[in-house]
Write a structure and sequence with these properties.
Helix content is 35%, strand content 24%. The chain is α+β, with helices and mostly antiparallel strands and 455 residues long. Helix 9 (163-168) links the parallel strand 7 and strand 8 (175-176). The longest helix has 15 residues, at 195-209. The protein starts with a helix and ends in a 5-residue tail after the last helix.
């Protein structure tokens, strides 16, 4: 090929490429050589007098085949469905599709300009045929090439030495082609993990390097751990069904075994308990606390861990999915990854928490990080962290602070606890240079090849 390209660049040969589509039948396509699902449906309806209920058709078809048959028969205008009854509008036979399937059994080539190519594409979308490119290359000497060829001596040109060439002594009378040491080697694309998966693994390793232990938990949680234990009022807007996804069955869970904790949480909500707080000043409801939801933040897991581990030192983190009733846009998803962490040490301060968060951002590769005072029901003082996204500007990526006295009192914890919840997708956008959160879940091969996480 390199010789042909060299001759072509010198005008000594003409090269013509003809691209064909090689078509072969898939395993599923073999099943429908004689009758496609939609044709079978028409035949069965005809035998039933022109109509049949879907329940009756399921005695003849399996559910997958029936769905395929109905889908394609409707597209072709052969049937109508009214109230679960499938009615025959006109009889039809897919002669052209079956003809392609039969010809493809023995190997079929089609050009993209042929009328049959659209039929092939349709069968390929259905998974009934497999299509691959076949390139035929024709090489012809130009007049200049013919003239030069008649004057050239007949010699052997060797581009690669082999044991046979050395044994037979061919190299003595041959021209050995010089090796181009400056030529670029072919690009190799070894298999590897998706760049966002690599990013999550990098974050895990960074947290472990900082002395944190990873914990894990369930997606389904009680509002008690997701909200109440975090001193979030039961009438807070975040608990509304427009923000939080509630489980239909079961609607309520159990809080047995932690009655003392539940009692202290109830007390700090209603009147602040004995920690110097006034609480929220309302009548706390056990039924609301028992409601089953999809967790809205992974803080539900870290607060539960803290309830059973009350002595310092504690450094734990979790990376997991959380769920919110969000509309999808460039920076929001209804399901996303969050990193939550807590740190309990004697004498721990807000200043140390800020230093830790700066260190995490630095290690992950975020060049610009801003802190801004914030408010959260469960931390005081509180801070919001912002990173800069290319083409967008500053966006919030985490909230953090020291757990409030109400929380520590209810849990029975006597030492300061720093906590933070971090949106990993937005952090990843800053590291990878993305300005749309949906790009993090792309299966575009060019993106997968060009975006590599290195740490």
């Amino acid at each position: 090929m390199s010789a042909i390209e060299l001759l072509k660049s010198k005008g000594l040969v003409r090269v013509e490429d003809i691209v064909w589509k090689s078509v072969r039948v898939s395993d599923e396509g073999v099943k429908y050589i004689n009758e496609l699902p939609e044709e079978k449906l028409i035949r069965v309806l005809d035998e039933c007098g022109g109509s049949a209920h879907i329940k009756e058709l399921l005695k003849v078809f399996d559910r997958k085949e029936l769905n395929i048959a109905i889908n394609w028969a409707r597209r072709r205008g052969w049937i109508q469905i009214v109230g679960g009854v499938v009615r025959l509008v006109k009889k039809g036979v897919a002669y052209a599709e079956r003809d392609i399937l039969r010809r493809a059994l023995a190997g079929l080539r089609v050009s993209v300009s042929e009328p049959n190519y659209e039929i092939v594409r349709g069968l390929a979308r259905r998974g009934l045929v497999l299509v691959s490119d076949v390139i035929e290359r024709y090489v012809e000497l130009t007049d200049e090439g013919l003239k030069l060829a008649s004057t050239l001596p007949k010699v052997t040109v060797i581009s690669r030495l082999s044991s046979d060439v050395l044994k037979r002594g061919i190299w003595r009378s041959a021209i050995i082609r010089p090796y181009n040491v400056s030529a670029e080697p072919p690009l190799a694309y070894p298999g590897r993990k998706h760049y966002y998966v690599e990013f999550l693994e990098m974050f895990r390793e960074i947290m472990r390097d900082l002395g944190f232990e990873e914990i894990d938990g369930d997606y389904v949680e009680l509002e008690f751990w997701n909200f109440d234990a975090l001193f979030q009022a039961q009438d807070h807007p975040a608990r509304d069904i427009h923000d939080t996804l509630q489980v239909l069955n079961p609607q309520l869970g159990s809080l047995k075994g932690i009655e003392d904790l539940v009692s202290r949480v109830k007390e700090v909500h209603e009147n602040g308990g004995s920690c110097g707080s006034r609480g929220w000043g309302y009548r706390w409801s056990l039924d609301i606390a028992r409601r089953v939801i999809l967790r809205t933040h992974t803080t539900a897991l870290t607060i539960k861990y803290l309830a059973y581990h009350k002595e310092p030192p504690i450094r734990v983190f979790t990376i997991g999915r959380v769920f919110r009733a969000e509309s999808i846009d460039y920076k929001h998803l209804p399901e996303f990854y969050q990193l939550d962490g807590i740190i309990m040490e004697k004498g721990f301060t807000f200043r140390k928490l800020l230093g830790l968060l700066k260190e995490v951002a630095y290690r992950i590769g975020v060049k610009e990080l801003k802190f801004k005072p914030g408010y959260f029901p469960f931390t005081e003082p509180s801070v919001e962290g912002y990173v800069k996204l290319e083409g967008i500007g500053w966006v919030e990526v985490f909230g953090a602070g020291l757990f409030r006295p109400e929380i520590l009192h209810a849990l029975g914890v006597k030492y300061p606890v720093g906590a933070w919840g971090l949106g990993l997708e937005r952090f990843a956008m800053a590291v990878l240079g993305f300005n749309d959160i949906r790009d993090l879940f792309s299966y575009d091969v060019s993106k997968l090849r060009n975006y590599v996480i290195r740490w």
